[in-house]
Design brief:
With 264 residues, the protein is α/β, with parallel strands linked by helices. Helix 2 packs across helix 7 and helix 2 crosses helix 8. Strands 2-1-3-4 form a 4-stranded parallel beta sheet, with helices on both faces. The protein is globular, with a radius of gyration of 19 Å. The protein has 8 helices and 4 strands, in the order H-E-H-E-H-H-H-E-H-E-H-H. The protein has a single domain, classed as 3-Layer(aba) Sandwich (Rossmann fold). The longest helix is centred in the last third of the chain and has 24 residues.
Length: 264
């Protein structure tokens, strides 16, 4: 049986970390947020999914998984709670006034929120490099964070001295696009099934409302009621295999990727 915390960086002792890094100098950084994912899913789905997916990668490929980041992203842009036309209903279901997600509530302008988040990511990348890894896989569980992760990785690539830690950012679904239907969604069959497999027991499909308002809750209407751990397991296996191929390439060509141009 796989130990429950065998690849979680924060739960390991120094000698365990050093041994794992020597065997495979790869780190995994899960990114997510706290966002509405329907009445049937936990609000932390993005980070929960990302963290568990990176654990699956580390156990098959090698390397260590860093704690997931739930905070710091723009709370007024590319967020279901703030940008959905049904955000008032969502706020009500959470027992919150809709004004809590109005523009300006965060006090900081949208553009500055974006830059602050990228600065946070930059700080984290330099910190992770100081821990001795050669390759970093950044997984954006909340899809809009992929742009921020790639931007931070590109700037980080320019800033750091050699030997550089190669940072590669991805969401996961784009690596297996065309092989699954659906492939990538918001709280629909894809995301719900992934979490059913990766971290079971937190979903309740019976909580999905029926009737004309069935999908007012920000859920992709793509067969979400047919979500299953079996579908999630197939998708996860395909994603892990794709990540393994990319990581193998980054490690094999580490010396050739030290110049200009961050790996994408």
């Amino acid at each position: 049986m796989t130990p429950p915390h065998d690849v979680q960086y924060e739960r390991l002792r120094p000698a365990q970390i050093a041994a794992a890094r020597a065997a495979c100098p790869v780190a995994y950084l899960p990114l997510g947020t706290l966002e509405w994912h329907g009445l049937h899913n936990p609000v932390g789905l993005d980070a929960l999914k990302s963290h568990a997916l990176m654990l699956a990668c580390a156990r098959q490929i090698g390397g260590l998984v860093l704690p997931p980041l739930y905070y710091g992203e723009n709370r007024e842009q590319a967020l279901m709670d703030a940008n959905s036309g049904e955000r008032g209903k969502m706020a009500a279901a959470m027992g919150l006034p809709s004004a809590n997600f109005d523009p300006g509530y965060m006090m900081t302008p949208v553009a500055e929120q974006n830059r602050l988040y990228q600065m946070l990511l930059m700080h984290m990348l330099h910190e992770i490099r100081s821990l001795g890894f050669k390759v970093l896989v950044i997984n954006a569980g909340h899809y809009p964070l992929l742009d921020h992760a790639r931007a931070a990785a590109a700037l980080f690539h320019q800033e750091q001295p050699r030997p550089k830690m190669l940072a590669w950012a991805m969401c996961g679904y784009e690596l297996v696009k065309g092989r699954f239907t659906p492939c990538g969604d918001h709280a629909g069959k894809w995301e719900t099934s992934l979490l059913m497999h990766l971290d079971p027991g937190m979903q309740d499909l019976a909580a999905l409302p029926s009737g004309p308002d069935a999908y007012f809750v920000g859920v992709s209407d793509n067969g979400v009621r047919e979500s299953s751990a079996a579908f999630g397991a197939q998708a996860v296996a395909a994603i892990v295999a794709a990540v393994q191929a990319r990581v193998t390439d980054l490690l094999a060509n580490h010396d050739q990727l030290q110049g200009h141009g961050c790996p994408q």
